[in-house]
Amino acid sequence: MEQIQVSKQESQIETPQIEQPQVEQFRYLGDMFAEYLETKGRRDEFDKLKNLIMVSVDGEILHKVVDGKKVILGLADALLTKILPSQKVRFLPKVAGG
Questions:
Q1: Contact 52, 93 (CB under 8 A)
Q2: Which domain holds residue 42?
Q3: How far apart are CA 40 and CA 91, in angstroms?
Q4: Which of 34, 68, 73, 82 could cross-link with 62 by S-S, CB 3.0 to 4.6 Å?
Q5: Does residue 6 fall inside a structural domain?
Q6: What is the pTM of this model?
Q7: Which segments of the chain have a pLDDT < 70?
Q8: Is 56 part of a structural domain of the chain?
Q9: For 37-60, how does the pLDDT look when each residue is reduced to its tens digit (9 = 90+)?
Q10: Contact (Cβ atoms closer than 8 angstroms) between residue 35 and residue 26
């Protein structure tokens, strides 16, 4: 009788590493404005100033459309707007008139 010898080879299967797309971390406009005020020593004025400020993101004033017309959003209306690090934000005073 012939004896069959089976050799057991240990094989390691390498799983390819899948690169996860890098997700940019966003920040909220409200948090950004609060941090801005802190740098100016005016953090306690947040509630008052949020109603007097409008926001520009990448050179465009934030707005919504109501009845076919653009209405500028103030910071108070956009506190939870998400902003990516690649976006440029400016806080501007609201002015009456036009």
A1: yes
A2: 27-93
A3: 13
A4: 73
A5: no
A6: 0.69
A7: 1-24, 96-98
A8: yes
A9: 999 999 999 999 999 999 999 999
A10: no
